[in-house]
Amino acid sequence: MPPADPVIIAEGISRRFAYRPVLVDVSLTLETGEALLLVGPNGAGKTTLLRVLAGLLYPSTGHVDRRVPLGMVAHDAMLYPALTARENLRFFARLHGVNGTRVETLLELVGLMHRADDRVGTFSRGMLQRIAIARALLHEPRLLLFDEPLSGLDPAATRTLVQLLTDLRQRGTAMIIVSHQLEQLRGVGTHIARLARGRLGPKDPLAGRDPVAVFTELMREDG
Known about the structure:
The chain has helices at 46-54, 85-96, 101-109, 125-137, 155-170, 211-220, and strands at residues 6-17, 20-31, 35-39, 61-66, 70-73, 143-147, 174-178, 191-196, 199-200, 204-205. By secondary structure, it is of the alpha/beta class. Strands 3, 5, 6, 7, 8, 9 and 10 form a seven-stranded mixed sheet that branches. It has a three-stranded antiparallel sheet with strand order 2-1-4, with helices on one face. A hairpin with a 2-residue loop joins strand 8 (191-196) and strand 9 (199-200). Helix 3 packs across helix 4. The longest helix is centred in the last third of the chain and has 16 residues, at 155-170. It is globular. It starts with 5 loop residues before the first strand and ends with a helix.
């Protein structure tokens, strides 16, 4: 694995919507090869934090220093339903200046080569998720942001994605994963942190600990 090096630094991030605080003084540093499992109750601000880190939302206060290319898989697949899976990936590949052969590699990787020429508007939720993941990986980003990446995936697709995330992390890709499906993510995360009432707790190293047990303990702190 490459030596540890910060890939993103957020300092004093706050975000308000109509004067309602959603994020409050959030600071976070993520290094090469770290996989942070971001947990917390619904409405805690987890999705908002990912969007600020990705540059999709401006913080009300604070600063984000993005030091490497990043990819994101959000609730919205960010695909064009009238285009086929291959056409979608080729379009985004051109935006990133990526060779078209990368498209074929990723279609094979996510197990959708047999549906490559079907419009994504006909795809199930799980299939859309797999194409969205392929889109996020097109430019081989060194930082990945995932908002419930296992949502809609069947057990086989879940195992494939978990193995992919493990391989990427072992090769040095950093990632932040918002997920309620921590049992399936055993072995992926290196750290876990709780976001509650817009405030982020410290990164807690997992070091082989069960993330479900750690999550349960962290949630008790909410009272």
